[in-house]
Amino acid sequence: MPDGMKHLPDGAFRNCTALVSVTCPETLRVIGSYAFYGCTSLARADFNDGLKSIGERAFMNTPSLIRVT
Q: Which residues contact 49 (CB under 8 A, 6 or more apart)?
């Protein structure tokens, strides 16, 4: 995700089965609903201290997710 991004839209990476990890920029404040829904290979998600909101079912159906910081 690019620096300066404040909001990740609803369904932004929905069903992206090749996505393995994600690191949010320091400016990100909101992750939309269903943003990572169905990302079956997603194993790691790193957030920043300024994150304020994670939408409904943002990580639903992500069975490989084993680490969130």
A: none
> What is the average per-residue pLDDT within 16-29?
95
From the list 64, 68, 69, 56, the residue with the least C-alpha distance to 20 is 64
pTM for the model: 0.91
Which strands form 30-31's sheet, in the order they lie side by side? 7-8, 30-31, 53-54
Q: How far apart are CA 62 and CA 31, in angstroms?
A: 15
**What architecture is the 1-69 domain classified under in CATH?**
Alpha-Beta Horseshoe (3.80)
Residue labelled with tokens 């369904």: 11
